[in-house]
Amino acid sequence: MLRRKPKRIRRRFRPVRVERLENRQLLAADSIGVTPIDNGEFLLGNVVVTPVLFESDGRIDASTQDWDIEGGEIDQVIGRITTGVNWWSTTLDELETNHELNFTVDETFAQSPFEIPYEPIEGSSEVFSLWVGDFLQSNGYGVGEAMGVSENLERAVREFNHDQRIKHNADWSFTIFVVDSSDDFTGLFKAGRFRGAFAFAGGLFIVTPSTRPASTMAHELGHMFWARDEYSTSIPWDATRGYYDAQNYNAISNPTPGFVQDISIMRGGSALAEAYSTHYSAEASLAQVGWRDSDGDGIFDLADVPLDLQGSGHFDASTSTYRFVGTASAVPLMNQNSSGPQSDITLNRVRRLEYRLDEGPWLLAAEPNEQVVLIDETVSIDQSFDEIHWRVVDDQVGVTSSTISGTSTLPAFSSSSITGLSFLDEDKNGQRGEMEVSLENTSVVITQTDGSALFGGEVDAAGLEVGGLPDGNGAAFTAVGGGNSGEVGVQALATDAATQAFHWWDTAELSWNEGWSGDVKFETAFSEPVGEVTFSASVTDQAGFLRLEAYDAGGQFLHRVTSQAINPGLESQVTIHDPLGRIAKVRAFGHAGTEVVLAKLSFGFQDEVVVLAGGGFQFKNIPDGEYHVELISENVIHQYDSNPVAIEVVDGGSSIILAAAQRVDSIRYNALNQYDTNGDGLVSSRDALVVINDMDRYGSRRLSAGETEGFSVDTTNDGFVSASDALVVINQLARQGEAESMDGASGEQIGGSFAFSMGASFRSELLGGSLPTGGEVGVTPESGSGGKIASFSHNPGTLLGSGASSIELSEQADSDCPDLSEPFLQSFV
Q: What is the pLDDT of residues 238-253, one digit of tens each?
């Protein structure tokens, strides 16, 4: 229920901003779910009001009304409109909620009244389309097919309102068409069903004589956001409308025994006047404009929806930093309105990303202040902790996301069916120690317990024959809606003969139709429930919105998602998922009066993932049941248990999998003597050349499990073949050379470097020229390394790898080593 204080203690005034604006176009990003025809779905946020004033020029009707500009008539009209709309923002303050409501009045079309040949107040209110149509057409918004802009008046007004909304970067927009009645005794239209002010609901427009009071403006504004009249028996009490599809309980026709009609801004006469003066209205009327707070927490139901946070995080003990990666977004409540396009809209924002250590205070990690956010944040942690918690917050509205939690050794995960941690279990106890490293280079596969793959498939019109679309791959296809046979086919697009898409058979036109809309929907039924369904959609000539609706095996509605605007020439992929994997049927169609072209869909489960940074992995949207999970390391020195892990998913979740890998020797490592790459029992220059030759042919790389044949080129035993492996051998040769020199053996020390001849000649070159050292290569010992090489040197004291130098190593005649087919040039930095 809405909470209203019996006595006001304070009031926060938000005066209307009145601006004269030049004719310009500003950029604005639509809120989640808003389409060009959504200009008044609920009464919160920022609203632009555009009064349009008319002046008769006497060409058809005699001019009896003239604006007294010098006398301030126009300013008085603007003042009444300002006061009337601001009644709602003040009334919102009285309710002490967490919401804000602000109005901007654009005077552009008020200060210079639009001239028409009619005198509207002298005629019937029901011919408003004549002068309203003149205004719209004059400003480029056609009201007939001949104009090529809009098909009718309603669409023209919606286009005008949408442009005004974008111009002012507002959430909503509507227009007030004002006719001069300043010199009319009654201040009313002479004829017509509505002689005073009247409105077309849902962000369209109000028509009013200029002398109607501010309370009338407040009443008519209620209609702009779907509120119904409560004074007329022609409006049934059981009629519903608005974001919640709220019932008109306060209508005078309510037959409930004991019903007493409450005062309300949507009534008339003294009841309206009392509501206006006290800033009060019946709960039923406020619910229709979106003001309903079922749990009394100060947040209206349409905004009282948790933010969505998806992601994972891990702690790096070596750097004392925690990294969190994921996405966050505001989530709209599903729109139940029985009128309008039923767009699911929210104005909420992800304003803060916060974390907390154990039970400590929430700390700020980032302030994105966006509706949809990509997150990659790293924070330093200089204290010990057991648990860490992450959340996103809209601290203005008062909603948060669910919390994602982890520990110093276990990653944090958003809600998933299956989660796990891959790590190098150095102490072999099956638990991750704080200094045991995580293993990112691992593939994880989930299967049925018998080893078979999880159900799924793909249907792509591009690869199918033209004609009817047959059922197959576990999916059946039907066109649902009026004017079609139910048959789905594959045909080329009318505008692009090289592109195929799904079509429906139009029984009226006896032809295939490529446009899927709210009238004809593409339905896919699956032989087994799935967790995810993805459609690819495009449009032909106008922007469109793809909506997907999911149903379970019993036909119960599960969820729906709607794309952002899809523009011509672009393709959009939209995915709908169910965390319990219950999707048995999906309907795809154009939303908000638009059409989309559908050419591809995929369905099933993500059954293979790669371990994330920090060693974590997760599977989402998996149905309850028993499964096997297998881990396959991409690094040959890490080995998991050869038996798959048995896991059971219950109520959409399971216990965490601790995937402990053991360290083993590389498949190309000589465990007897790491420097003896060719296995001849000796360590010579040939062993270095074996590594260099291998890199010349195959490049530096991570070894694959199939590379078991060949020399032992992984001298570092790290699962990679790189220049480091050659350097390890050369270091060893240098140590051997130093020892021989100390014993009077061959090898001459030159300027602090070692030049050596060990059955092969080493020749150095400078890129673009030769070295002045006579072809000798020196190796500079690392300080305190006992002769271990720190770097190659082409001249005593000058290091290679500074950006200008490299070395070329080749062997003279030696049949025991593979020949270099081409000179090998390798820079060592």
A: 999 999 999 999 999 9
